[in-house]
């Protein structure tokens, strides 16, 4: 009976250690998932900002192209 009680105590300690390890692993997994979500949001925001900047630069380029054509048009007529 004494040996069985010792074995039972050891089994309970092992179970407690495994449960603690399981909790730690679940928490680590949750932290990793949260980190991934944060990175995805930052990436999405950065992509949206870059698209906005690209659109602004395209508009600027279009305006400059129009201005250049306006400036060149009279000189073409003179030649």
Automatic annotation (TrEMBL):
Biological process according to GO: neurotransmitter receptor transport, endosome to postsynaptic membrane; regulation of modification of synaptic structure; regulation of neurotransmitter receptor transport, endosome to postsynaptic membrane; regulation of recycling endosome localization within postsynapse
Keywords: Coiled coil
Gene: Gripap1
Coiled coil location: 1-71
TM segment ranges: none
Listed name of the protein: GRAP1 protein
GO cellular component, one term: extrinsic component of postsynaptic early endosome membrane
Source taxon at top rank: Eukaryota
InterPro entries assigned: GRIPAP1
């Amino acid at each position: 009976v004494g040996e069985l009680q010792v074995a039972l105590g050891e089994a309970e300690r092992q179970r407690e250690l495994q449960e603690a390890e399981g909790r730690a692993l679940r928490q680590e997994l949750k932290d990793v998932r949260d980190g991934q979500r944060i990175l995805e949001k930052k990436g999405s925001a950065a992509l949206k900002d870059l698209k906005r900047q690209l659109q602004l630069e395209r508009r600027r380029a279009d305006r400059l192209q129009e201005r250049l054509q306006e400036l060149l048009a009279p000189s073409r007529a003179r030649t």
